[in-house]
Amino acid sequence: MKRAFFPPAALLALLLPAAFAVLAWEANYDESRVGTFDLPDPLLCADGTPITAPEEWTQKRRGELLELFEREMYGVMPPKQCARLKGELLSEKSVFGGKAVQRQVVLYLNAPEETPKMNLLIFLPANAQEPAPAILAPNFEGNPTVSDDPDIIAPNVPDATRIEKGKPIERGAEKSCWALEKIIDRGWALVTVFYEEIDPDYDDHRQNGVHPLLRAWEDKNNIPWESRAATITAWAWGLSRALDYLQTLSEIDPDKVAVMGHSRLGKTALWTAACDERFAAAISNDSGCGGAALTRRNFGETIEVMDTALWWWFCPKYSLYAHNPNLLPFDQHELIALIAPRPVYIASAAEDLWADPKGEFLSALGADPVYRLLGTDGIAAFAEQPPLDTPVGGTIHYHIRGGEHDVTDFDWDQYLDFLDKYVRGK
Ligand code: GCU
Fold this sequence. Notes:
- The structure is a single chain.
- The chain is an alpha/beta fold.
- Helices cover about 30% and strands about 15% of the residues.
- The protein has a single domain (about 10-420), classed as Rossmann fold, CATH 3.40.50.1820.
- Helix 1 (about 10-25) packs antiparallel against helix 8 and helix 6 (about 230-245) packs across helix 7 (about 265-275).
- The protein binds alpha-D-glucopyranuronic acid.
- Alpha-D-glucopyranuronic acid binds next to loops.
């Protein structure tokens, strides 16, 4: 994969030792070497006060935790006011034998300026009797890769790292991950956007994508540089702007939009729903370290690796914890807790040890006390990681699918059952 960024020699001298340290670093896949750790209690405030009532969580602890995640890990989430939105319909046609309407909309984020902008690809169930619930899920390789349709517009991302300049996009290349007809048949709308249209996925020193829009607000509000919006926050901010637009459509139920993502976009989906309470539910597919998996478990990917290979996803402050995650004032079960009491689905894949499936399950379990305090059934009666391909839980749901790091039809079947039950009340 090509990168547009070539570090100067002085920077190389700084980066190389770190790169060699990672090459020499070996992921731990041995459960007996995970070690012991104490997980922070989500229901204990920084000042030592225990949270015992739902309103104490809502009024005190939730805000305190969110601020910690912003300041120490993902960077401060800028407000909606950084954007001047304008949606423009580019195309609309009937697809899937008339079962769906496929719409393409360009959403300008700083109208009337031409950039930044993102292309939303929207599939709406045709003939719906009422506004449809929707799933907003960013894609990895560009909108044309989710379907074979020749009319889907290729993204215009000059600095993108995943799409090589000049190389034709392979239409439908990712369609096995999208189960589009299945989603439509179940009465859900699906909205996708190429994530690098929001912010390119490499260290561009926050120059591209939505960063210039966010920076004006960060400067004005004296947000410290070490806690400014990192790339995951930029992606999450962009998804919230997509929701702003979706909430204006008569075909979509504004209160029933779930956010879903795979891998780095699963990390993003959780953070998006944590920050933006308008999302009705969140689905994390194989999100791993920095997403659903507990950071304190030394298994698979660690902050140390991300800090050396993928540092731009997190704010600079997070580097402080690269060698000692135990110092973090939170762990990822508390990211899930920030979504409470809204439904959340955490999914793992058995061969995806890099993402630490057990750590993802324990994180879901660790969020349970908050979900229960807020009056839901949480993860229900499941204290043990379930067998393969067996979804468990209640408002917090979990499964570990056989197979690799991927999104499959099996995953979508579970998500749709879950969303129907917990978001639609069906
Ligand atoms: C890498 C990275 C993971 C990430 C994944 C992805 O494997 O280490 O943290 O989830 O890429 O997004 O594909």
